[in-house]
Amino acid sequence: MTTAVPRDPHPPVDLTPAGQIAKLRYGDPGERYYAAWWLGRMRIQAGIPALIEALADETDRTAQGGYPLRRNAARALGKLGSTEGIPALIKALRCSDGQVVAAAAQALAEIALQQNLQQNIAELGAVLIEGLHFVEQGLETEALAALEALIEALGQLQPPGSLEHIHPYLEHDSLRLQCAAARACYRLTQDPAFAQRLLPMLAHENVHLRRAALLDLGASGYLPGAPAIATAAVEANIKLLALKQLVEINLEQGGVLGAELRQVLLWIDELL
């Protein structure tokens, strides 16, 4: 008589590119979700075809209408930075799940910036503006998240003609969208009046809004906003992220390491 060997309740995870690509295609929902994240996190270029397939998945859907796997696939394609993912990400801007639209918009901006697609900025901008209008008509889930990401992506890429589509959001009912629009409008125009709209938000009673506004101020690149970031009533790690982004943007834009930037570096040192 033989004795059955009990199954290992915690079998080893195959953390190889081939293993995770197989999990993404054929695993259960949890395995597929993790595999999409892993392939992006580890920058596995061989995973791009499987991630593109996952971006059109219809099986992994929540009761609220969300597509978790698609969200992770879009994020992963952004991290991988390959232009091969652009057509699928553009198609994902028409998804009924706002979180998928948000992830796709962010990924398109990431890829364009990584690949320095200056000749394609106008075309990508037009696609993002179309996505903005599509979301304005209503989505099943997370429409505000989609609008915020689309506005931010337009601010990052700065395509011609986008200001007129973003400006109305400065008066939106959502304070988060007002912040996103202020950040994007400043990136597009360098008009201090737009960035200064973020400063009162740093004293808002809602800590989540304070954090978001602080990160928007950092991502705007508005250097005079650095003292307000350094003294805001939010966690040190959030302030650190915002100040680092402020420095990076100003240096990328050809700024010199003058007194203002040196002071920001000092604040960063204090927060580390």
UniProtKB/TrEMBL annotation:
Q: Which Pfam families match?
A: HEAT_2
Reading the lineage from the top rank, the first entry is Bacteria
Q: Which PANTHER family match?
A: PBS LYASE HEAT-LIKE PROTEIN (PTHR12697), PHYCOCYANOBILIN LYASE SUBUNIT ALPHA (PTHR12697:SF40)
The organism encoding this protein is Thermostichus vulcanus str. 'Rupite'
Among SMART domains, the record links this protein to: EZ_HEAT
Name of the protein in question:
HEAT repeat domain-containing protein
UniProt KW Phosphoprotein keyword: no
Q: Which key words tag this protein in UniProt? A: Antenna complex, Phycobilisome
